[in-house]
Amino acid sequence: MLFCGSRISSKVIITALFTRASPKNVYAPFAILKAKRNAQKAQNEKAPKMEEFFTQNSIYVVLVIVLVIFTGLFIYLLRLEKKLTALEQQFSEQDEAQQKR
């Protein structure tokens, strides 16, 4: 379908399709294309809000990315410390058991 995905009012389409051909409205079919182009322009003006945010507030985007990376590293180091503590306790218990023999 020609108008799939665009937001053109049905009134514009019907008016453009069913007008009689006269010198004034010979270009009526082109009104559909013009309406479609205008609808796409309006939609494109609304779409780049996130892109605009990233371009204007790039320092905040960088800060969030760095914060996520440091949080991940911190969590990794905490888990690694817990595992090392458990292994140290296990080895110390084995050493005590061997010294008692």
Short description:
With 101 residues, the chain is mainly alpha-helical.
**What oligomeric state do the depicted chains represent?**
single chain
Class derived from helix and strand content: mainly alpha
Helix proportion range: over 70%
- Please tell me the overall pLDDT: 77
Q: Please trace the helix and strand order, writing H or E for each element.
A: HHHH
C-alpha termini separation: 88 Å
Tell me the radius of gyration. Answer: 34 Å
Biggest sheet features: none
> What portion of the residues fall into strands of 2 or more residues?
under 5%
SS element count, helices: 4
Low-confidence stretches: none
Number of strands: 0
- Specify the overall morphology: rod-shaped
Word description of this protein:
The chain is 77% helix and 0% strand. The protein is mostly helical. Helix 3 (49-56) packs across helix 4 (58-100).
